[in-house]
Design brief:
Elements (H helix, E strand, L loop, with lengths): L6 H11 L2 H28 L2 H8 L3 H5 L5 H24 L6 H18 L1 H7 L13 H4 L4 H18 L9 H21 L6 E3 L2 E3 L1 H16 L2
Helix pairs in contact: 2-3, 2-5, 2-7, 5-6, 5-7, 5-9, 6-9, 6-10, 6-11, 9-10
């Protein structure tokens, strides 16, 4: 994965450069985003408003407007927070020198799905496409070309490129199409597990299969489809 500095290193460096006032502002901003995720989890997008959020954390609406100009901006930051978490976890997988190269794409798939289902409502919020008025938002790539969502996709594409160049994946793979297909499959399984309790758990010939085992099987099946 072609990221020169880890997320933790970047965060630590940023913290050292911040003034006390900037650190406090960042903490409050993070607190607001965490509260927004809780409200979204309990009440859905319809229940998330600046006034409802103010009640949740005992702030005045005007105080929240100092950090977020609108619900649209808040939702954008909520989406970004999920993908920032995802990027950090994927980076931990790809930057581990002891991890065999042939396992990286499997582990990336598993990491994506686990990150999604750990906070299901945050994941759903991350893919919400409604603006403050309830109208479809602009295409994400056009609205946020430097967004963490795009960086997460580019990290996946980078792993496909590296797999092909290393001879681990088939040379004839159309790389962008392959990355989008992988993302579609991971996204689909994550949503199924979020919306259908117990999805993936089954019994095969008297042998129980857990949700984690199903995720591992799915990741292995995808990787085998790419294998040279």
């Amino acid at each position: 994965m072609s990221i020169s500095m880890s997320t933790s290193e970047t965060t630590s460096e940023t913290n050292l450069l911040e003034t006390p006032a900037e650190r406090r502002r960042r903490r409050v901003r993070d607190e607001i985003i965490d509260a927004a995720e809780r409200v979204f989890r309990e009440e859905g997008p319809e229940g998330l408003s600046i006034r409802r959020l103010a009640d949740e954390i005992d702030y005045s609406p005007s105080a929240i407007y100092k950090y977020f100009a609108s619900k649209t901006e808040l939702m954008t930051c909520l989406k970004e927070a999920f993908f920032e978490r995802l990027i950090k976890r994927i980076e931990e997988v790809t930057s581990n020198p002891d991890r065999p190269k042939e396992r990286i794409i499997r582990d990336c798939v598993e990491t994506y799905i686990h990150t999604a289902i750990e906070r299901p409502h945050h994941y759903i919020a991350a893919f919400s496409s409604l603006d403050e008025e309830g109208d479809p938002a602009p295409a994400f790539k056009e609205a946020c070309p430097e967004s963490s969502r795009m960086k997460a996709y580019e990290a996946l594409l980078d792993q496909v490129n590296q797999g092909v160049e290393a001879g681990l994946f088939r040379r004839d793979l159309p790389r962008d199409l392959t990355a989008k297909s992988l993302w579609s499959s991971m996204h689909g399984l994550a949503l199924l597990m979020i919306h259908i309790p117990g999805f993936g758990e089954m019994d095969i010939g008297g042998r129980p299969v857990s949700r984690d085992q199903f995720i591992q099987f799915h990741a292995d099946l995808l990787a085998r489809g790419l294998s040279a």
